Amino acid sequence: MKTLVVAATKAELTFLYQHFNLQEGDFIEDKNFDVLITGVGMVATAFALGKHLSSKYKLVLNLGIAGAFDRGLKLGSLVNITEDTFAELGAEDGEHFLTITDLGFGENTYKSNSNVNLNLPEVSGITVNRVSGNEKNIRNLSERLNPKTESMEGAAVLFACKQEKTDCLQVRSISNYVEPRNRDKWKIGLAIKNLNDWAIAFLSDMN
Ligand SMILES: O=C(O)c1cccc(C(=O)CC[C@H]2O[C@@H](n3cnc4c(=O)[nH]cnc43)[C@H](O)[C@@H]2O)c1
């Protein structure tokens, strides 16, 4: 059985493509693992996984960059996001937020699930449609959910894996802090390099 590597953009896997000499394209089948590029966001991710996730995979490995709420996480450092929440899924009730669980429509938090020990800091994250860049919104999210990271896909991957009963891991590299938007401070290159170095070693060791 194979591993399915899932990322939002090909740019986030640049060095992995180079190292394993992968062909161009958004779904690549290699000897020991396949790669799926979903597009940015939870809708694109859910759609792509709906098309490609199947029982032929023993593990889904979600890779990407992420924002950090926790200033203790260094830019370029890697985290194992073991729990991820759809932060906006629910209803506003004045100043109060009702989750879909409060509304009686199911879960909004999903966990990763694997026996593999990654030896990376384990954190909980949130998944959003809109990158947080407004002080009041950031404070509300922190108080309500106490997340350490933020991405636009993570919870969708964990959700799909739960539906398909497939083991999954989410490893992300911190590219920026969650704060009022200042793109000049983002360290995307460093985050992608460190993420790819880790992923190349992990996938090489597995096989
Ligand atoms: O501009 C570039 O060079 C570049 C290269 C590769 C990827 C990007 C992206 O913007 C990827 C979008 C991806 O990043 C995740 N992300 C990163 N930081 C945050 C955040 O603070 N809040 C939410 N999501 C974040 C997200 O998962 C996107 O899919 C640019």
Automatic annotation (TrEMBL):
GO terms for molecular function: hydrolase activity, acting on glycosyl bonds. The keyword Hydrolase applies. The keyword rRNA-binding does not apply. CDD domains: futalosine_nucleosidase_MqnB (cd17766). InterPro entries: FL_hydrolase_MqnB (IPR019963), Nucleoside_phosphorylase_d (IPR000845), Nucleoside_phosphorylase_sf (IPR035994). Residues 36-194 form the Nucleoside phosphorylase domain. Transmembrane segments: none annotated. Its EC number is 3.2.2.26. Pfam families: PNP_UDP_1. It catalyses: futalosine + H2O = dehypoxanthine futalosine + hypoxanthine. SUPFAM superfamilies: Purine and uridine phosphorylases. It comes from the Bacteria. Pathway: Quinol/quinone metabolism; menaquinone biosynthesis. Keywords: Glycosidase, Hydrolase, Menaquinone biosynthesis. Belongs to the PNP/UDP phosphorylase family. Futalosine hydrolase subfamily. Catalyzes the hydrolysis of futalosine (FL) to dehypoxanthine futalosine (DHFL) and hypoxanthine, a step in the biosynthesis of menaquinone (MK, vitamin K2). This is Futalosine hydrolase. It comes from Pedobacter rhodius.
